[in-house]
Amino acid sequence: MLGITTISYVQNQNPSANLKEGSKTYGSGIDIGQCRINIFTVGYKLDLLNSQPNVYSNIKWKGKDATSNCLSGEKFDLFLSIGTDSVPRYIYAGSSTDVVAGNGNYEWGNHPFSGTVAWDKLITKNFGTANNLHFYTTEEAQAIWNAGFTVKTIKVVTENGRVFILK
Questions:
Q1: In the chain, where do the E strands start and end?
Q2: Do residues 88 and 108 lie in contact, with contact meaning Cβ atoms separated by under 8 Å?
Q3: CA–CA–CA angle 154, 158, 159 (5° rounding)
Q4: Fewest 10 Å CB contacts: which of 12, 19, 105, 106?
Q5: pTM of the full structure
Q6: What is the torsion angle, in degrees rounded to the nearest 10, for the CA atoms of residue 86, residue 31, residue 101 and residue 51?
Q7: pLDDT at 9
């Protein structure tokens, strides 16, 4: 689905117990910088590899003009909302510098963001600019992960601070 290669797991580890995969879409038109987008979808996959969290994300979008590549020069960050309303929690799922967007014809990008994330850089208490994030400690993040969670929404934060919520 996301254009990601198959992941090999450590022997005796049950990958399905830790796997979270899905996508969320914003379909009523948004502007990211100078790019007018009619529909925007973020796909994600979260799992463990050698007891380390892995975050994968990819995007597909349809611009006002089907052959438009206007998104390639715009900056934005992706956050997976996993908390409750009273206790916000977010997994940082990459930025426009990590994901190479497709050309606006609603196909997955050709270089998805993927990689192992340190536990103390996995779950943040807020979303916004990368230099202003407040992360849970390793122990707290592991406890949150092990307790189980669902991805409720995805927040797209643009360079100028606009937030779009994908459901």
A1: 20-26, 30-32, 35-49, 52-63, 76-81, 90-95, 113-116, 123-124, 153-158, 163-166
A2: no
A3: 145
A4: 12
A5: 0.84
A6: -10
A7: 30
pLDDT at 16: 43
Looking at residue 158, its amino acid is: T
What average pLDDT values come out for the chain (167 residues) when binned by 10 residues?
Answer: 38 52 89 88 92 92 74 86 88 82 79 85 90 93 92 92 91
Q: Which among 37, 23, 26, 25 is positioned nearest to 104, based on CA atoms?
A: 37
Single-letter amino acid, residue 146: N
Q: What is the DSSP string of 25-59?
A: EE-S-EEETTEEEEEEEEEEEEEEETTEEEEEEEE
All residues at 6 or more sequence positions from 118 whose CB lies less than 8 Å from its CB, including other chains: 52, 138
